[in-house]
Amino acid sequence: MLADANGAFGKLLFSMATVMFFETLPEELAFRGYIHRNLNTRLSRWLAGIVVVALFVLLPVVLGTIARQLPGMEVTIGGSTHLTAEYRVTMTVFGSFVQYSRFLRRAIEP
After folding, report:
1. What is the pLDDT along the chain (110 residues), one digit of tens a residue?
2. Contacts of 36 (CB under 8 A, 6+ apart)
3. Residue 11 has what pLDDT?
4. Angle at 42 between CA 39 and CA 46, to 5 degrees
5. What is the structure's pLDDT at 2?
6. What is the spatial distance between Cα 54 and Cα 96, in angstroms, rounded to a whole number?
7. I need a surface site. Which of 57, 65, 97, 109 has the fewest CB within 10 A?
């Protein structure tokens, strides 16, 4: 029984590391790093934030559409075969929260 728990824990750690290095980290570097920094030089801080959140929400739509055109590719986004309204709301709220956190951090820094 303990061996099963250790195996499951190892799989969980591996899954978390995979998601962090192949999804979360590149996404944060791209959206809240590169894109936001460049938009922030041309637009107001809040407008740049709104554009970044919109791009963040649109990315699964674009990638899902492209993936569906590839033969033999099964696409699951947010646990469904199509993009649900709940998933879009979740992405919008999460993206907005992360962007707001960035604004708040910048406001606190000296």
Report:
1. 445 666 778 888 887 888 777 777 777 777 777 888 888 889 888 898 888 889 888 888 887 788 788 887 777 776 777 778 888 888 889 888 888 887 777 767 66
2. 48, 49, 52, 99, 102
3. 82
4. 65
5. 47
6. 9
7. 109
| Sequence-separated (6 or more) residues with CB below 8 Å from residue 32 | 52, 98, 99, 102
Phi, psi values for residue 95, rounded to 5°: -60, -40
Sign for the pseudo-dihedral over CA of 95, 11, 76, 67: positive
> What is the secondary structure of 31-87 as a DSSP string?
IIIIIHHHHHHHS-HHHHHHHHHHHHHHHHHHHHHHHHHSTT----BTTBSS--HHH
